[in-house]
Amino acid sequence: MDVILLDDVDKLGLRGEVVSVARGYARNFLFPRRLAEEATDARVAEVGKRDAERARHEASNAEQAEAIADTLRKTVLTFEVKAGPTGALFGSVTPTNVADEIWRTRKIRVDRRKIDMENIKRIGRYAIPVDVYQDVRVEVKTLVVPEGGELPSDEELEAMAAAELAQMQAAAPPESAAAEDREVETEEVDPGLDERAIEAESDDFDEAVEVAAEEQEL
After folding, report:
1. What's the rounded mean pLDDT across residues 2-18?
2. Average pLDDT estimate for 61-72
3. From 46's CA, which of 17, 55, 65, 200 has a CA 20 to 30 Å away?
């Protein structure tokens, strides 16, 4: 069935796009999480009208692109998001979020697919590349700030990222050790099996030679 995405869905599409999915996937996953809605003719027409309105504000030539790029260079986007003590977000900031914020603050239409970024998953200061037009690229300054708080200094952000990495590494050794033990067991078992197989093949070969020799004497 066809659905309209209400939010970016990894490996499926961006918000506002019409995509085809299995009916069960839509009803059991997308709809309950409000990630999509059924693509009725009326809703598809409404989304198309909205996109057409925004497209009128998109650069249509190099001169307009340079003017838009100049505006974006002076723009600072700010996202207040829920984050944990190490700066990791409960969620992420996506290209769609960036495009929507540019539209909201500057009324400039930017194609989400021309925003060159991975989903942002940590608080911090970012410079997000945007392709405004052919050969016209600009970096938009973006702040991802913890909800109800202030953005720490770069040194503090680095320390927070290091703390999160240390936590992840501390949790990893048991599994790694188990994997190493399995590898050692495999290494210890396999050579014995190979040696016994070789010995068996050698014995069979010797017996065959002896039988052939006896038959030849007879």
Report:
1. 85
2. 89
3. 65
Tell me if residue 143 falls in helix, strand or coil: strand
CATH at residue 72: 3.10.430.100
Q: What is the pLDDT of residue 213?
A: 47
Q: What is the DSSP letter of 27?
A: I
Sheet holding 2-5, edge to edge: 18-20, 2-5, 36-38
What distance, in Å, lies between the first and last C-alpha atoms of the chain? 81
Same domain, 177 and 210: yes
CA-to-CA distance for 139 and 161, rounded, in angstroms?
Answer: 24
Residues 46, 26 share a domain: yes
**Tell me: the pLDDT tens digits for 88-108?**
999 899 999 999 999 999 988
State whether residue 74 is helix, strand or coil. Answer: coil
What is the three-class DSSP state of 94?
Answer: coil
Q: What is the pTM of this model?
A: 0.63
Q: How many residues are given for the chain?
A: 218
Query: Angle of helix 173-217 relative to helix 154-171, nearest 10 degrees?
Result: 40
Q: What residues make up the domain containing 164?
A: 58-168
Burial class (CB in 10 A: 0-12, 13-18, 19+), 102: buried
Among 56, 84, 99, identify where a domain stops.
56
Query: Which two tokens mark 68?
Result: 């838009």
